[in-house]
Amino acid sequence: MPKIVDHDQYRRELLSRCFDLFAQKSYGSITMRYIAQELGVSTGTLYHYFPSKQALFEQLVEEVCQQEILMAIAELEFTQTLQETMDAMGKFLAKHEDYFIKLTYIFVDFCQHQDSKQMWSSRMFRRVDERSRQAISKVIGIEDSTVISLILSLIDGVILERLWGNEKVSFTEQCTLLGKMLTAYLPEHQLNRKLNYKSYSVN
Amino acid sequence: MPKIVDHDQYRRELLSRCFDLFAQKSYGSITMRYIAQELGVSTGTLYHYFPSKQALFEQLVEEVCQQEILMAIAELEFTQTLQETMDAMGKFLAKHEDYFIKLTYIFVDFCQHQDSKQMWSSRMFRRVDERSRQAISKVIGIEDSTVISLILSLIDGVILERLWGNEKVSFTEQCTLLGKMLTAYLPEHQLNRKLNYKSYSVN
Amino acid sequence: MPKIVDHDQYRRELLSRCFDLFAQKSYGSITMRYIAQELGVSTGTLYHYFPSKQALFEQLVEEVCQQEILMAIAELEFTQTLQETMDAMGKFLAKHEDYFIKLTYIFVDFCQHQDSKQMWSSRMFRRVDERSRQAISKVIGIEDSTVISLILSLIDGVILERLWGNEKVSFTEQCTLLGKMLTAYLPEHQLNRKLNYKSYSVN
Amino acid sequence: MPKIVDHDQYRRELLSRCFDLFAQKSYGSITMRYIAQELGVSTGTLYHYFPSKQALFEQLVEEVCQQEILMAIAELEFTQTLQETMDAMGKFLAKHEDYFIKLTYIFVDFCQHQDSKQMWSSRMFRRVDERSRQAISKVIGIEDSTVISLILSLIDGVILERLWGNEKVSFTEQCTLLGKMLTAYLPEHQLNRKLNYKSYSVN
DNA sequence: AATGAATGAGCGTTCATTCAT
DNA sequence: TATGAATGAACGCTCATTCAT
C-alpha cells in the first residue's frame, strides 16, 4: 500500500501556494530550490508533481485562469443606479488590489515567455477575457463591446499604475469617475437600461 | 575630454540597442552572453561599459525614462475639438504600439525586481508620470487630476490588453470612445476649454 | 521455510530478467527506476529484494557466473574428428552470439568497477574460467593449457569483434579455420586424441 | 587581444588526458566534475572546449581512433621468420598491454552507448579495423582475410582475458603459439610467403 | 579599448535510497 | 509483501563576472 496522498489534489495545493512566489520573482529569476523551500518540500518532491519548472509555471497560469475571481464582480449586489454599481466595483477592486497586481505580474511574465499572439488565441486567455466581459456586462447592464473594453482596460490600467507604485491613482476614485462619465455618456445611446437590467435579473 | 564623450556616447548607443532585448527576454532570463552577442561585442566589452548586469538594466530603465516619447503626445497638433484630439492620440498610440508594449514589459520587470513602492518614490518613475500628465493635460486642456489619471490608466490598460494579445481592443477605438465620453461628461464641469489651454500654453 | 524459498526464487527471477537490462545500459547509466519499470515492479519492491544497486549488480554477475552455458559446449555431441567438433562449436557460438555479447558487456562493466586483479582472485571469475577450460578440454580432447587459452581467447576475441559490429568476422568461419590450424599443428604434439578424451570421460 | 591559446590544440591535449579517466570509470559513472578536477581545470573550462559530456566522449573515441598505435605493429622490424615476427608482436603487445586494455574499456563503453551495428558502419571503427588489418597483413606477409581476422580476434581475446584479470593468458605465449600454428598451417595454402614479403618490402 | 579564456557558484533536474502506509 | 511519495546529494550544464593579453 502506498502512502495515501491524493496526487492531483496535492498538486493543486502546491500550485496555489506558488501564486505569490511567481508574483514576487519572475519566472526567470525564481529557482526551483526557492520554490521548494517556500513550499516546505524538497526539490525532489516538486519534480514528483511537476515535470519541469516550465510545466509548473504553465500549470500555475492555467490554474489561475480557471479561478473565478473576476466573476466575483458579477456577484456584486446590483445596486439601484449605475453610479452605485461603479462605486461598489471600485471598492471591490481596491480590496483585492494585491491579488490583481500579482495576477498581472504573472500574466505579463507568461506572455514574455510565449508568443503572446499565439497565446491569446489559445483557449486560456480568451476564456478569462470572455468571462470578465460577461461579468462586467451583467453588472452594469451594457452590452456594447467597446464600452466593456474600455471598462476592462481602465481596470487593467489602474492595476498597472498601482503595480508600479503610483499612489495618485486609486480604484475607488477611478471607478467613481467612470460611473459619472458612463452616466453622462450612455443615455444618448442606451436609454433602455432598466429593461436590460430586468432581463439580466431574470437569470 | 573627447574620450569620455565617446565612451559615454557608445555606452548610450549600446543601451538603446538593449531595449528590444530586455523587452523580449526578462531580466532573469536574459544572459550577458546573449546581450553581448546580439550587440556584436564581447562580454568583456559589455563589462567595460557596465559594471554589472543589474547596473546595465537600471541604466536602461533610466535611459528609457529620459526618453521623451510620451511627451510626443504634446506635440500632437492641437486640433479644434476634443474629439479630434482624442482621435489623433489614438492614432499616435496605435502607431507606436510595439514600443509601448516593450516599455511595459521592461517596467513591469523592473518593478518586480524592486520594492515597487520604494521605486515610485524614486525620481525616475515619478518624473515619467509627471511629464505624461503634463503632456495629456496640455493636449486635452484639462487640469482635473482624476480625469488625467483616467486617461493615463486607460492608455496603460489598452497597452496591457494588446500586450497579452487581445485583438478585440484597439487604441483608436478606445480613444474615440473616450473622446465621446469626455465630451459628454466634461461640459458640465469645464466649459471654458480654450481658456484652460491658453493658460497652459503660457507655462 | 517455504516463504524463504519463494523469496529467493523470486529474487533470482528478477535477477535473470535484469541480464538484458544491464547489457543494454551500463551500471553507471542504468537507474533503479528504469530497472523497476522494466521488471514491472516498484522501486520499493526492488529494494525489498536487493539492498542496493551495487548489490543487485554483483548478484547479477554472480548469478550469471553460475549459469552453465559455457559448459554447454561440453554437451556438444562428440563428433568423430577435431574439425567436425570445431565446426559444431562455431555453430553453437554463432547461435548464442547475442548472449555472449551481453555477457561481455556485463563482465567488462563489472571489471571496470572493481580492481580487476583483485576480482580475478575472487572466486567467481576463476570458477568460470576453470569451467570453460574443462569444457573446451573435454570437447577437444586436449590438455595443453596454452592451446586451451588460445581457443578461449579466440572465442573472446570474436565476441569482441562482433560486439563492436564487425561483420567481417564470424564464429563459424573462425572456428573452422581454428580447426584446420589445430589439425595441422597438433599431430606433432598430440597424436593420441582418443585416449585423451577417454581419460577425460573417466573424470 | 584575447589570451593567446590555441583552442584546438588545447582541446586535443585535454582529450588525450581524458583517455585514462574514461578507461578507469565508464561514461555513465564518470562525472564532469571529476574529469575537470583530474585535468586541473574548472567545469566551466571543460564546457568551453566541449559542448557536452557526450561530445567529449565522442571526440575522445574519435581521437583515439585516429591514433596510430596499432599501426606501430607494422613498424616491427621484419625478422627473418614468421615465428620471430610473431614473437616480436607478442612482446610489443605485452609491452602496451595497459594501453590496449584501456582502449578496450573505452570502445566497449562506447558501443554500449550507441547502436553498435550502426557505429561500425560509421567511418571510425571501420577505419581502425582496416588499418589494423593492413598492419597485420604487412607484418606477417599474408593476405588471407580469415587468417587476419583470426590473428586480430586472438589479440582482442587476449586483451579481454587480461582485462578481467586472467593471469594464465599472456601475449607472448599466445603469439608464440600462434606463430607455431601458422607455420604448421600456412605452407599448405601459402607457399610463396617470401614472395609476398618481398612485394610488401618494396612499398 | 577589447577580447575571450577561465572560474566556480548555482541552476534545473535526476538519482539511489528510505519509509509510512 | 509491496507501493510510490519523499528526500537531498549530486549530476550535467550555465551564468555573471574576472583578468591576462
Gist?
Chain A has 203 residues and is mostly helical. Helix content of chain A is 71%, strand content 0%.
- Please state the overall shape of chain A, judged from the principal axes of the Cα atoms: elongated
Q: What kind of assembly state do the chains in view correspond to?
A: homotetramer
Helix percent band of chain A: over 70%
Question: Largest interface, counted with CB-CB under 8 A?
Answer: A-B, 55 and 55 residues
Low-confidence stretches of chain A: 191-203
Could you tell me the strand content of chain A as a percent range? under 5%
Work out the helix count of chain A: 11
Order of SSEs of chain A, N→C?
Answer: HHHHHHHHHHH
Using only C-alpha atoms, the radius of gyration of chain A works out to 20 Å
What is the strand tally of chain A? 0
Q: Give the overall average pLDDT of chain A.
A: 86
Task: Please state the structural category of chain A.
Answer: mainly alpha
End-to-end gap of chain A: 49 Å
Largest sheet of chain A: none
Number of domains of chain A: 2
